[in-house]
Amino acid sequence: MYELFANLGGWLVSGDQWSGTDGIAHRLAEHLQYSLLATLVAAAIALPVGLLIGHTGRGAFLAINLASFGRALPTVGLVVLVFLASGLSMWPVYIALVALAVPSIVTNTYAGMNAVDADVKDAARGQGMRGHQVLLQVELPLALPLIMTGLRLALIQVVATATIAAYVSFGGLGRYVFDGLAQRDLVQVLGGAVLVAVVAVVLDLALSALQRVLFRHRPA
């Protein structure tokens, strides 16, 4: 066991391991590209849905259950299904990652909107605000902490799952996991897994710190 971790440490700090198109720096950039793009697309889909159902109170049951269904989908199975339909491309990976990210964003956005005090919304309407003004100037700012929590959770889930890109012969940190399994190279498998875990933890801590800074004056 000691030898395994010593070899892992050597693998992680090796200069050769960080250079070139197969190096950690390049694979990390690919992994972050897949993750950020998928999360942005998911946010573009899920935020309007969550805001709409939270503002109107309509369609909540259907939207939340569809989101839960998306969370229950087997990610690798979805990749294989889309891969068979579309051929070799990044589409299966992006579709699977977006489907994974949408539920957290929808549910947290709806929860944030639903948590806004009804008296606050009534007071805003009493001031003469129209529906879209209440949404954008009252409900959205108050719901923002929970919305950001949903985005953070979605991004971390996507980062941890983006290793599936290597399953269909693309890049990212998952390349080390799948290549290591194929070559029976346990050090490479562990190295890929450790890198994914470190990236997920670092992003989570960074986004948590950003939330605390942005909302430090909000009441608990």
Automatic annotation (TrEMBL):
It is a multi-pass membrane protein. It holds the Pfam family BPD_transp_1. It is found in: Cell membrane; Membrane. Gene3D superfamilies: MetI-like (1.10.3720.10). The chain crosses the membrane at residues 32-53, 60-85, 91-111, 153-174, 186-210. Residues 28-211 form the ABC transmembrane type-1 domain. PROSITE patterns: ABC_TM1. PANTHER family: GLYCINE BETAINE/L-PROLINE TRANSPORT SYSTEM PERMEASE PROTEIN PROW (PTHR30177), POSSIBLE OSMOPROTECTANT (GLYCINE BETAINE_CARNITINE_CHOLINE_L-PROLINE) TRANSPORT INTEGRAL MEMBRANE PROTEIN ABC TRANSPORTER PROZ (PTHR30177:SF33). Belongs to the binding-protein-dependent transport system permease family. This is ABC transporter permease subunit.
